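Same chain as my last thread, 84 residues:
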Amino acid sequence: MDKTAALVQLGQAVRHFRKAIGFSQEDLADRTEIHRTYIGGIERGERNPTFLMIIRIARALEVSASELLQLTEAIANEGGQKVE
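reply #2:
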């Protein structure tokens, strides 16, 4: 497994759900109490969030952590293509 690719795919899933509910990165940061630059780093695949951070993000996005990870896996299975 390519760690960098997996992080990029997680970031794409976070971005997909964030945009689906009409949140900016700042909105998501406020809702999760995570700094906006950290959210941006996750979306770009530059950060490796902990399990607890993934749960916080998923709750803020109004999805389950499993839904977030399922989309991440679907993106990986599609060759890393963005799902918008």
